[in-house]
Amino acid sequence: MSRKVGSDIEIARASTMKPIEEIARGLGIPDRHLYRYGPHKAKISFDFIDELSARPDGKLILVTAITPTPAGEGKTTTTVGLGDGLNRIGKKAVICLREPSLGPCFGVKGGAAGGGYAQVVPMEDINLHFTGDFHAIGTAHNLLTALIDNHIYWGNDLGLDVRRIFWRRVIDMNDRSLRSIVSSLGGVANGFPREDGFDITVASEVMAIFCLASDLKDLTKRLGNIVIGQTGDRKPVFARDLKAEGPMTVLLKDAFMPNLVQTLENNPAFIHGGPFGNIAHGCNSAVATRSALKLGDYVVTEAGFGADLGAEKFFNIKCRKTGLKPSAAVIVATVRALKMHGGVAKDDLGKENVEALKKGAANLARHIENVRKFGVPAVVAINQFSADTEAEHAALRQVCAELGTEAILCSHWSDGGAGTEALAHAVVRLAEKSTDGFKLLYPDDMPLWDKTRTIAQSLYGAQGIIADKKIREQFAEYQKAGYGHLPVCMAKTQYSFSTDPGLKGAPSNHVVPVREVKLSAGAEFVIVICGEIMTMPGLPKVPAANSIFLNAQGQIEGLF
What gap in Å lies between CA 207 and CA 211, rounded to an integer? Predict the structure, then answer.
């Protein structure tokens, strides 16, 4: 039976956390291999992680979702709830999540530690500075920026064209005023003025590298491969040309160790890294995922945004680069969101509307079909809201049954792991029947242009892709330069299968315009930008920051 649910922070504060040593011992991690950050957070040493290499892997479960709407889907909450549910039915399960960014926490989205009775804790720490990983990543990024400007100041031996410097600055905060700036003003002593700008830290290529590197040696190599700009005759200049990869790795060496925390039900959770789900691949670190697979029978992880962006990048980028093979996927849907895809306004979502639900379920159907194209079996998790009706749940189950997929009602927000036991059993059934049929959508040797078109046509329902002659020449240039084997990282609106965020449901036969193509040589993917993509968000008119404060007892209020 559902219980009354307070605010996320009230629930988190009322929880009883176990010492992090006890959580670690449950995974077989000795105390000596913990780098503690207070009583409830710790990093796991690489000495211990290296000892795990001979162990078999557990089963990897990906949690993804339908196309996001303002109505909410609850992907992170479901990930946490499923991990708790698996542990409740006797499975040794570990959760792997991304770290939240401070920008959205103080902006409009809020935190990313789950919600209700399906949270990771300590919630306040995780949503704020946590173990300092993002600060280390931002500092490493900005060190490279400082080295670039310093090199130019002291004579520019590399011949960098100051008009063709690609490397911007980063900060972990939403600040629209920093999107475009002019740096080095104030006279000769301050360097050569040039156009510059800031991105949010999660959009940094250093963040993407951090989350795809296999070890510190690989991290150093990838950092050195970053293309920072071009010379006057258009030759690439790399971070290694500035000898930047060594000191950058030094700044990242502690951050690179995975973070261990716990759920409200005292189950283990790795929270590590947090690349943008748009301009990057939107998954937690490969180091954390691989470590969890050696320590648990089941690992539940998530990918950013809907399955067209998140799951696609998880499969085509993260799994391709790490050799991971998921055993099953969970596609999170809500009645509210599907009704919105069916044309219902946000203010009317509380009213029963079975016909709109069925119409909007076309969005869910395409995501189910898309996940199957990778050979991964899927189950649908219906994240329950109080205004849902039995008729709507029955209609959604029927839609999924006709697609050959089971849909399971989940109440983890109000009931914790008890509300996902049925989902946990379904996931185990799928995973145990899994025949290792996982496959990638395209081969490495397919040309970059064709990779982009394949994603647009196969997953977005598009007729094709278009681009100006200049953009097509850029594709050809990267192909010729030896980067054609890399996967493509699609950057488009998360709110539609098309590039029009207002086009809900499952649009077909649209055309995807490619506006820009960028190389992330260190992360080892090519970013294909379709439409307007913001790498430095702004705060809303009334930011969440306005409601965050310390109460009389010195406790944080207003985080959500």
Answer: 6
| Domain count across the chain | 3
Q: What is the pTM of this model?
A: 0.94
- Give yes or no: residues 497 and 511 share one domain: yes
Domain stops at, among 433, 457, 484: 433
Structural domain that includes position 461:
448-529
The 10s digit of each residue's pLDDT in 4-45 is: 567 888 898 899 999 999 999 999 999 999 999 999 999 999
pLDDT digits (tens, 9 = 90+) for 281-301: 999 999 999 999 999 999 999
469 by Cβ neighbours in 10 Å (0-12 / 13-18 / 19+) ranks as exposed
CA-based nearest residue to 306, from 69, 484, 480: 69
Return the CATH number at 460: 3.10.410.10
d(C-alpha 356, C-alpha 392), whole Å: 10
Dist. CA 180–CA 260, nearest whole Å: 37
Task: Kindly tell me the burial class for residue 456, based on how many C-beta atoms sit within 10 Å of its own C-beta (0-12, 13-18, 19 or more).
Answer: buried
Question: What per-residue confidence (pLDDT) applies to 3?
Answer: 60
Residue-level pLDDT at 72: 73
91 domain-assigned: yes
Same domain assignment for residues 14 and 123? yes
d(CA 526, CA 206): 15
Distance of CA 331 to the CA centre of its chain: 15
Q: What is the pLDDT of residues 125-135, one digit of tens each?
A: 999 999 999 99
**CATH code for the domain in which residue 322 is found:** 3.40.50.300
